[in-house]
Write a structure and sequence with these properties.
This protein has 316 residues and is α/β, with parallel strands linked by helices. 41% of the residues lie in helices and 19% in strands. The protein has helices spanning 19-23, 28-37, 54-72, 79-90, 112-123, 137-150, 177-184, 186-195, 198-207, 238-245, 272-280, 300-311; strands spanning 6-12, 40-44, 47-53, 99-101, 106-108, 126-130, 156-161, 164-165, 168-169, 210-214, 226-230, 253-258, 286-290. The strands form 4 sheets. The chain has a 6-stranded parallel β-sheet, sandwiched between helices. Strands 1-3-2 form a 3-stranded antiparallel β-sheet. It has a two-stranded antiparallel sheet with strand order 4-5. Strand 11, helix 10 and strand 12 form a beta-alpha-beta unit.
């Protein structure tokens, strides 16, 4: 029998104050995981490298991400908690679903609302996430899509944006259609490259397993066995949004993200995102997550910048 494929999973934790409790006294929690899973864990500051079989590194990463979230919530972690989490995750028993697993990293919720968002992504066929930049709306949506694709739950991950950005339309950009589209969709590629090795992204793009395209490319299609993400959705018209939402096919998930304070549509054109949230509120299978500046998880200055703009009075 061939040996299990070995790999290295890297984890990074932002709050150094939680690491002593996470790692355990003299790294006892890490040593316990090493013993139970036949893996090797190397700690350098707030980063961990986990080496072992694909399955064992995956389980270790999920266990540590789960325990880190407990600590973020103010809960304690001891040896019993480590063993309990490990047992549940190894047996694939129900546990608090507040993290997502991709090829390159385990992504845990960094706020209570992010935890609610992750749960909503896992449980609903259509999720709207509205709020300012830096709240993880798109990043977590892409992570959910990557996780479901890697787990074989869906065949494709489709990422899309409407072709209106900061007042500039694609037709005025230089180059052919691919050259026009690629820079515009770059943030979606960046998220993918953060979760999958570069060669895997290229391979899946070539095979059609991952598709990154403007919203107009969705017209006339039925998207099944897929996770479909519409980013910057505040820049859709009502007609465009209805067109997109009705592309939903069998065994598919849709995630729609946007910031209604950053609408770049012509004056007087209503946002399709605002209309859809209002129209579909309360519909079974649909959940709406509203982020605010308090949920910004980028550099603290980003939160202060968002707050300053929200407080800015419009000149009369």
């Amino acid at each position: 029998m061939a040996a299990d494929k070995h790999s290295t999973t890297y984890l990074e934790f932002e709050d150094n104050n939680l690491l002593l409790d996470l790692f355990g006294s003299q790294e006892s929690h890490l040593k316990l995981l090493e013993k139970e899973l036949s893996i090797s864990i190397t700690a350098r500051g707030n980063q961990l490298g986990i080496q072992g079989s694909d399955e064992s590194t995956h389980i270790a990463g999920q266990t540590l991400a789960f325990l880190y979230t407990r600590l973020q919530e103010g809960k304690q972690v001891d040896v019993t908690d480590v063993m309990t989490a490990l047992r549940h995750i190894t047996a694939k028993e129900p546990h608090e679903a507040v993290f997502l697993t991709t090829k390159r990293r385990i992504i845990s919720a960094r706020s209570k609302l992010q935890a609610t968002y992750i749960k909503a992504l896992k449980e609903n066929e259509l999720v709207f996430a509205e709020g300012p930049a830096g709240t993880g709306k798109t990043y977590l949506a892409v992570a959910l899509g990557v996780e479901m694709m890697l787990n074989g739950q869906v065949d494709r991950l489709i990422l899309s944006r409407p072709a209106v950005e900061a007042g500039e339309r694609l037709g005025f950009l230089p180059g052919d259609i691919q050259e026009k589209v690629d820079p515009y969709l770059r943030p979606l590629y960046d998220a993918l490259h953060d979760m999958l090795p570069l060669e895997q992204v290229a391979k899946k793009l070539a095979a059609g397993e991952i598709e990154v395209a403007p919203l107009a490319f969705m017209r006339g299609r039925t998207l099944s066995d897929s996770v479909i993400i519409l980013d910057e959705a505040q820049n859709t018209t009502e007609v465009q949004m209805k067109m997109f939402l009705t592309r939903l096919g069998h065994n598919a998930r849709m995630i729609v993200t946007g910031d209604l304070t950053q609408v770049d549509l012509p004056p007087g054109v209503p946002s399709g995102l605002r209309d859809a949230i209002q129209t579909l509120q309360g519909v079974r299978g649909v959940e709406v997550i509203n982020f605010t500046e308090r949920d910004v998880v980028r550099h603290p200055l980003v939160s202060r910048i968002v707050r300053a703009y929200e407080n800015k009075k419009t000149p009369s």
